[in-house]
Design brief:
Layout lengths: L2 H5 L2 H30 L13 H19 L10 H10 L8 H17 L24 H4 L15 H11 L11 E7 H8 L14 E8 L11 H19 L3 E6 L4 H11 L5 E10 L15 H4 L7
The structure holds flavin mononucleotide.
């Protein structure tokens, strides 16, 4: 604290603190804005043929998914998607013809043209759902109610194949226009411990964490001002799926916040060799709970206090 702060009366010190917090908030929002603005896609109306890399993949994915969605409606319009078609025809020549997303876009375009010319809905693009909706689980609590954050792990290492399987399952997560902006950085053993030092919430147990997964999203997948928060949403959804997948595979985990100042997230990005456009969502500590470990009680609110009533709060 400055000498002014030390000798000032309590009310003045409180005001000074508030001013400082406000300045910090402005500084961090400004840094977030710069990162997002440098990475983002323009919005649909401003798209030119100059897109490349992840921006190009995201725009093409966004557009071909509009075709898939349109054809999965109860009554698809006919014709539809003419603007999407024009944009895809402009963008596809710039993309790697062998990339999977380009193949998806081409098959979607063909399906759109077939539909608009009076044909049927393509089974490849918007297939009939051939399995019935999931029947109710007999005892959902036995899955949902048995996951707890674990902060006391045994020395047993985590099988890398299980981590990969968990990521594969987490990829079933929904994402905006199916853009799947996720990246995971997996570190085991001593390297996991070093990565955990970039956040504070694991200080009491980081020495015994066998593996850590850092979840990021690529801000180049998001477009314009309206999608400025989308990466945090898609990243959070993926993180939760990953934790449920770990639980389903018999692994224990603890989500770990990345509520850190930009300089710390930057240092982590450098350490992981991550791109500047990667927004760091959170870390997840993974391992096998030590036999006889405790868990925090973490009591839950009652549903009545969470479900908003029609009349307001
Ligand atoms: C985004 C996020 C960040 C978290 N960060 C930490 C953390 O830094 N350290 C920690 O010990 N727990 C952390 N937790 C775990 C929460 O304390 C825990 O999920 C909550 O108390 C509910 O308990 P449960 O996970 O056992 O159901 C975090 C959870 C979330 C969702």
């Amino acid at each position: 604290m400055s000498s002014l702060g030390k000798f000032a009366p309590r009310a003045l010190r409180r005001s000074l603190k508030r001013v400082k917090v406000n300045l910090d908030v402005r500084k961090e929002f400004a840094a977030d804005r710069r990162r997002y603005a440098a990475a983002m896609l323009p919005d649909d109306k401003s798209i030119t043929a100059n897109l490349s890399g992840m921006n190009l993949e995201a725009q093409i994915t966004k557009d071909y998914h509009r075709i898939e969605k349109g054809l999965a409606l109860q009554q698809p319009r006919r014709p539809f998607g003419l603007e999407v078609q024009r944009r895809l025809e402009k963008l596809l020549p710039a993309a790697d013809p062998d990339a999977e997303y380009v193949q998806h876009a081409r098959t979607a375009l063909t399906a759109l043209q077939q539909w608009n010319a009076g044909g049927g809905v393509s089974e490849d693009i918007s297939p009939l759902r051939d399995i019935p909706s999931q029947p109710a689980l007999p005892d959902p609590d036995s899955f949902f109610g048995t996951r707890h954050s674990v902060r006391d792990f045994s020395a047993r290492p985590v099988d890398p194949a299980l981590l990969e399987r968990a990521v594969e399952l987490a990829l079933f997560s929904p994402s905006v226009c199916n853009r799947q902006s996720w990246r995971v950085h997996i570190r085991q053993g001593e390297e996991a411990r070093r990565v955990l030092e970039f956040q504070n919430g694991s200080a009491g147990f980081r020495d015994i964490v066998p593996a850590v997964v850092v979840i990021t999203v690529d801000a180049r997948a998001f477009a314009g001002a309206k999608e400025r928060n989308q990466g945090w949403i898609d990243g959070g959804i993926f993180a939760m799926s990953l934790v449920w997948a770990l639980h389903a595979l018999g692994l224990d985990s603890c989500m770990l916040n990345m509520s850190v100042p930009t300089f710390k997230a930057d240092a982590l990005r450098r350490h992981l060799n991550a791109d500047d456009s990667e927004l760091v969502i959170m870390m997840v500590a993974v391992g096998h709970g030590r036999e006889g470990h405790r868990r925090a009680r973490s009591p839950r609110r009652g549903t009545a206090s969470v479900i908003a009533t029609a009349g307001g709060a």
